[in-house]
Amino acid sequence: MDSRTWAVILAAAVLRLSLSWIFPSLNSILGQHVAVTTSMTSFKQLKEGLHLYEIGISPYHGGVYHQAPIFLLLFKLLGKFGSTAPNSLVVNGVYIFTDSLTSYFLCAISKSPSLAKTDQLASWVIASIYLFNPLVIATNVARSTAVLSNAAMIGSIAYACYNRNVLSVMFLVLASHANIYMVYLVPPFLLLWTSKRGSSMASGAKYLLLYITASAGLASIGYFMTGSVQYLSATYGFLLFFEDLTPNMGLWWYFFMEMFDFFRPLFTYIFQLYSFIYVLPITFRLHNYPLIAITCIVGITTLSKSYPEVGDLGVYISLLSLFRFIFPNVRYTLVAVLVLLHSLVLAPSFYHLWIYLGSGNANFFYAITLVYTIGLTIILTETLRATLLFEFTGGKDPSKAVAQI
Amino acid sequence: MILLLPKIHILAVCVLCHVSNCAAASSSSYSEHLDLTPLPRNNLLASFNFEVYSDPAAENGFRNDGQLFWAHYGLFPRSVGQIVQSTHTHELHLRFTQGWWDAEEWGLLPHNGKYAGGSGVEVWAWIAGESDTQAENRWYELVNGLSGLFCASLNFVDSTRTTPNPISFRPDSNMRSSFLSYPGSGENNTASSDLHLYHGSLPRETVCTENLTPFLKLLPCKGRAGISSLLDGHRIFDSKWQSMALDFVPICDPDSGCRLHMTQKVDVVLDVQRSLQRQHSPIPHPPPTEELQCDRSKPYHSESICFPLPSPEVVDWKLSDIFGLKIKSSCLVDQTCENEASSSSVCTHITPAWRLSREDGTVVSSTPSNACFSLHDSNEFDLFFSTANSTSVSQNDQPPVYIQRSMTGRGQQNGGIQTIIYNPSMTDSVSLIYLESLPWYMKPYIHTMVATLSSADSAPPASPSTSLEQEVIKRTLYRPFLERVRGTYLELKLEVPPESRLTLSYDFDKTLLYLAEYPPDANRGFDVPPGILTVLTKGADGNISYTYALRTSSLLLSLPTPDFSMPYNVIILTSTVMALAFGTVYNILVRRFVYEDDLGEHTPLLQRIKQRIRARFVKQKTPAGSNKSGKVKERTDAEDRGRDKKT
Fold first, then answer.
1. Distance of residue A170 Cα from the nearest chain B Cα, in angstroms
2. Where are the domains of chain A?
3. Residue A403: its chain B contacts at CB < 8 A?
4. DSSP classification of residue B154
5. How many C-beta atoms surround the C-beta of residue A171 within 10 A?
6. Could you give the strand order of the β-sheet that contains B363-365, starting from the edge strand earlier in sequence?
7. Chain B contact for A366 (CB, 8 A cutoff)
8. Which of A272, A335, A381, A390 has the highest number of chain B CBs within 10 A, making it the mutation to test binding with B?
9. pLDDT at A169 over 50
10. In terms of Cα–Cα distance, which of B123, B192, B171 is closest to B532?
11. Distance between alpha carbon A279 and the CA centroid of its chain, in Å?
12. For residue B46, pLDDT beyond 60
């Protein structure tokens, strides 16, 4: 961590703070935009849940609040230090600190023993790719709780890279408690936890057991808070069975809206299976590169999860920035970037056309989500191909031509 | 008509049979009243009131569960009685309302709003049940039965449209006190807690003739005689505001036992001018000059220039002009034993400016404000109203509170609701209960609720300068919505200080529905049931009574809609994109890289398979292909595996 990195972090913090102070309505505008927040991460719904919790109604009793109970505890605690309005000092502080921490973790990962021997971008570049990514800034200003769960996930990677496995397990438990799709990261994390020389299957089983126990412990917090296990169906059930049709950048909402009632359960299972089906193959195939396996699974869930948001793409891009050594092998960069830019620019405008102006219909926004998914697919497949090619050539620029069979 | 006559005759005979033993039974009784009140701007409020009492329940008329059981209904309509009894309903209230009551012009609602519903259909009932589920099932049974009886879509009152146990309603009957201590019901004090109140409303329901006809059929004379013969659908539903109410209440007193009491009310505000025009000139044409009534206050008024009055001051009409019919005889079932409980009358509430006369030209009254006519002495009844000043109407009191509710925001993603409650009194503060039940696809954020108080004259302040939640909102009852299961229930106990305006506002989100959940005209929007405001008054003895009730108008909520023609396209396109991602990722994952130098010459598929089989079984060297560098080729993994084995 050189002075330049600190300067980047400081500049990013100032930028975030000034954004929410100069444009106070930006918090609520972005906080209600469907591309930036979903009902799994919305700060407004968190506030509603907190309010219900404080007046003594179980927030999971109704269909208002679907986020993890731990956020209620966290923000109830924060409420003791001051207002929890989206642009209050406390909330600003927490979100800016979390983002800075995430960028710090990312720099730490790039300096970790396993990556340091490869070609790496400078720390300040990695930090600014995360901190100055408009998607990340938007997610932060929208006060999406995904900022917190993503920080926990990246923290978990960072600790695993430095062999602080127990801490890493704890961070992953936190992350997957807030966002159940992070459970998909457990297989590649097992590779990471057991990558140290001399560790065996038994140690992997040990960490897995630790993970399960800690998750159960954290899950029981919700039980003690609300006095029932109702919160499980309100959070995880809500996510698994896809009950909220609010538009988002994913593939689910329009599909299930138009789907015939009779087939809806079947396709819910298929879609959930679809998001899981990549996890084990990628883990097995990239067992030499668990970090890249984690990154790819993050990318896959960005594409296939039930309530995706653009902040996930920001995290995915930041994780990709750690693997400088595969960049030379990546093709179609221009195409992928243009497709994603195209969709990210048009998505808000088409949504506006549909919802506010009424001059477009739902198909406009739907078409853009398809384009977005295709852009993600290009990046994902090229990352995978580049990694496998790197594995094959051993990092040397192949003088001989290579074929994929 | 010829065919009908014998039937009517038989009916009359039967009625007479019943009449003969009236004094002996002294049981079921029926009375009907019509109150006519002219309102400002040539409107007429006609309040029809029909009351029926059943025979008392038999001495041994208790079932095992302590419920009253009626074997004989008398004049009481059996169709309602049976539905109510089979669903263990203790008290039932049903309202069909349409139009808008102009409280600023017309003042208090008739009967203090007790019998006026929100626009559409509203129903609430107290139902006995050992558990919530049992009572709820009985409630659905009840609304389904009523749906068939009244040709209304009451069967659509499901869990999403039902509000359980709101505190805005109190039972009319005295069953809580006397009914339960009535001998035979046992000392079962828990029975009172077994009563469940359910409230449902259908704001979108259009009230029309098909609801009026079954409503009239419940009356002993079926709308053929008595004041109910005035109730013609063409006139009733051509009104500015109309409300039909059916109340079913058991009345118990220790002397005569328990009886069923059913009240049917029809309150209509009719536009007299419109009704007259329909009667006299069905095709609209300008009135002749001599009939024009000019606004003389206009500065340009002269012999040749006339600004017509919006509603003429000199009016002259008769009852049959307004309703299109005369009252046909009376519906007094028993003319010999007429008493207070069994009567038939028409009353008017007019000012001395009005002149009333009967058909034969006899002036009935020009001074008393309340003139009542008993109907049993005439076969056909009509009344003539005339006045030189139609703006002179009997004073109707100012309502204790005004309410107005509207939607704020734009777009179809989210919005807000703003409710303004105005207390016009100069001296007294008003305590209220405000009930709002929202459909589940409206997702309110209760933490955004802001209450602001402003003085009567000024508009509500732009920013909530005085956040008075603690002072104004005494109590909040809230149950959040659950998707597709139940709607939001919000009940607030408020205290509005004198001469001030309370503004309540909160945000909500709109949501998308499944394709099949949209009604055929999805872009029309969805109706949000009216809010119900109940005024509480503390009596001298400290008891709080519900003195006045009023409803807000219903709201139209427009939700975002999908493209209804797209199901197959969406399924196909989404699946294609998913298959594309799956295919490319797996294509990369299952293949491996090789140097081109190691690649064999391209061999045809058949030959390759042959080679593989041979490689498996025969230890034979296959000729390695010659190298061609500089070109990328792809092979299958399996072939490569075969190659490994060979080498």
1. 31
2. 3-245
3. 593-596, 599, 632-635
4. G
5. 22
6. B315-318, B384-387, B354-357, B363-365
7. yes
8. A381
9. yes
10. B123
11. 16
12. yes
